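Progress report, Aim 2. The chain analyzed during this reporting quarter is listed below.
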Amino acid sequence: MTTPISTEPLVVRAAFAVLFAAAGFAQGRVLVVDSQNRPGTNFMDLPAAEAAAADGDVLQVRDGSYRPFTTRKALSVVMDAGAAIPHTLALPQPAFQIVGLPAGRTFKLMGFRGRPRLSGTFFGDVVVGQCAGTVVLDRVEAYGGFAAAVSVSDSAGVFLNGCSVTSTGLVVTNSAVVLADCVVSGDVEYPLAHALQFDRPAVEANNASLWIAGSALTGGSRVANLGLGQSALRLVNSHADIAGDHTALVAGTDGTPVSAIDGTGSTVRIDPAVALTPSGGAPPIGPFVAATSANLPSLSAPGAPRGGTVATDLFGQPGDAYLLLLGTPGSRIPVVGLGDVWLDVAAGMTIAGTGTIPTSRHAGMTIRVPDVPILLGFSFAWQGVGGSPASGFAVSNPVAYVHD
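Predicted structure tokens for the chain:
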């Protein structure tokens, strides 16, 4: 149960007014993409729309079938239900590739729904690479093939919120990634591939930094029909913060003993509320991952359409003081004694609420989203701070979403 915080409504309205004004200032054109060329259409396919778009533009993609999309621009892509990028042998490439996004820019993708593969393919649905800017994936459903469903490399900051990453999971290399309220699986989905395809850990991180909160990670259950289960999280020279009473990491169950978290040369900081389920009698965390138990606040803030409601939920220790920060997503900034702040400080942020964590350990606030055109494709970001003078304070995971 989430206990509403006690916040002066006028303060919250004023905070949102400032950020809404920023949204109106930042938003460019809204370009309607419609493969059926219905009234109001600007482009009939995504590549043409991307070529014509400028930083800050919004691509509103109506239901229909489209070709794959590649960009380095700071765009917002909002996909209606029924908008799809079919994967065929004639189009052997990811549905979305965001490569080379410059620093200080943000790319946002909301509502993409991939489709399960009928046969093995060499590409997953989403590839993010060499992005010095920020990438937000909100309510995205991605599927993999011989490659991961979502792969992130050499990128400064990638947010996944409310995403489903199915069939060969998520691979992160030389990057910082946040998962909030996501479901990730390393199991292969397509029916004829088990004889050839290696299942994978749900998340693999190499020289990476991860924040995982409110998410379910399940490792693959077989490797080329050999019955070798996979961990939920594999870390190689990486660090992960993991928190949330709804967070669960489950190892694959079809084979030899395997830990829920394994790897080499890595560290993990994990809240005691997180559920770890190894298989075959293995320890929850492998011997080559140094684990520290810590009381970490965790935050959930599912996205909502314009005219809908955003409900935040901060999980923490009873009696701890806390505050909720509201702004726009940005690259992480280390703050000594607290952790990494992921809000764009240069764009401005505000304290949206304060309070004390109740005995339920959940506190939150509910905010109605104005039904105004300027919010289409705009992304807000939240982050909590919780603790006490005796135990110290820490930041929660950040959460970023995109309004449709």
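Confidence is low (pLDDT under 50) at residues 1-11. The chain is about 5% helix and 40% strand. These observations will guide the mutagenesis work planned for the next reporting period.
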